[in-house]
């Protein structure tokens, strides 16, 4: 499956969430880019965040974030072998 621009936008937003705390989230403000607002809505529709404008990660969102950050570490060459 190729990465569409929409998936890239969702990943870019997802990796902005903090991994270390369930009590921290993000809010995509109304003056953010339309792409970022749409990405937040799509993450919400997929059940990865708690609010259409961000909020907190769900348990599925935490899993997605862990996998996304792992993939970024691997692709950026920051993996210890």
UniProtKB/TrEMBL annotation:
InterPro entries: CHP02647. It comes from the Bacteria. This is TIGR02647 family protein. NCBIfam families: DNA. It comes from Photobacterium arenosum. Pfam families: DUF5669.
């Amino acid at each position: 499956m190729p990465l569409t621009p929409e998936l890239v936008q969702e990943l870019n937003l997802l990796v902005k969430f903090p991994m270390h705390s369930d009590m921290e989230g993000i809010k995509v403000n109304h003056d953010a880019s339309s792409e970022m607002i749409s990405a937040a809505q799509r993450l919400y529709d997929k059940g990865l965040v708690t609010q259409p404008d961000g909020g907190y990660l769900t348990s599925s969102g935490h899993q997605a974030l862990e996998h996304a950050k792992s993939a970024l570490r691997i692709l950026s060459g920051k993996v210890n072998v």
